[in-house]
Amino acid sequence: MSRSDRIAVVVVHGMGNQFPMDTLRGFVEALQKPNATLYSSPNRITDDLELRRLSFREEKMDYFEYYWAHEMEEPKLGETLLWSLKLLFVKKRSASFKKHIYKVYLLLLSIILLVAAIAGGVFWLFKDEIQGLLAVSVYGFSVAVLIRFVWSLLSGSIIGSVQSSIGDVVKYTIPSPGNIAVRDKIRKKGIELLKKLHEAKKEDGKTKSYHKIIVVGHSLGSIVAYDILNSLFAEYHTAFENIPGYFKQEELDKLLLASSNPDHTSYNYQNIQNAVFNEYQSLGCKWRIHQFITLGSPLTHAPMLLNKKLDDFARKKQQREFPSSPPQPDDKDKHFVFKKNYKSSKGKPRTVKILHHAALFGITQWTNIYYKNDWIGGALSPEFGKGIKDVELMANNRWTRLIPMATHTKYWDKKDNGGLTEIEKLLERSGRYWKE
Question: What percent of the chain has pLDDT over 70?
């Protein structure tokens, strides 16, 4: 089968009431170079008529969005508040969350004091009028009506947006019986999209449409994407075809050695992962996810968000439930590969060294980008392994730096292009790798 020269980029949006294509259009238009021509074409990959394929005439990348917001069911306000209170005051905190908790407490205290000051000021101004039980009752009723009126105005905007965003996290990260169907549906539709991109062929019916696939996950979308990749690789990690009559797996051997102490100087470790990717492609491996890029990822809080207890996370990583980079080695031989027998293209038996079902980040590069004042995101290598290349950014605008989480939606902002610059580098590297 001949090799395609095109790359598919799949963007997975974050939490909140997202509209179809809004995230993808913002992402792609930020990447648009002067005089570049942007085309919007029918999707042709899935049956979703709300979604389109975007591409530039001048480059060989097609951009798709995995849209999952319509599958989400918003939890009740009480459920969201209970989850938030547990997170703030009950649960043991992850290392990343400990860095910000005192700031969160300070923010909450400031809000409480502000509300108390306003209420006290109102009472002081009208204390002469507030006399007797009847007057107090009237005053209290008036305040209640005013609060209800203000709440109704805000609930559709600020409070509604916060409730919707936090509600998505509650619904997706807690595997309670009421949330299972939503989680399952979101993951399966994401797996379906990536499978179709893997299997897509050009008009000749022989050439694969895409040689590589890049997955970009923003905010909660990074958790969604991580789960999808985890499930999909478990299906693809033994899927090989057209194995040549003679071959070596020298690049995989290099990766096994380098994984004991990953070196990110000049992308050294990711260059080895790329070599393994190319080696596996030469053996007919069906897996085509070349890069995983996370932006402002809550996975930095994974031990606390995705588990009932902090020590559950380390145990589940050891058991290969949560893929890490480098992959989790076997307890006995300290490798993350096993041998499997196949038949070569000439029908002769051949033994191939295969990455185990949770070793997708042996072949797929993982780069994590986060702003320093983005409390939602943070470094991932402390939790998911030193094979992840963490890129910490500082906002250009000094006022933006001072406002907590103001940068969470700025990762491909042209005005504060720190994140955009890093994303461009990574996309360019995938294109260059193919040429090499």
Answer: 81
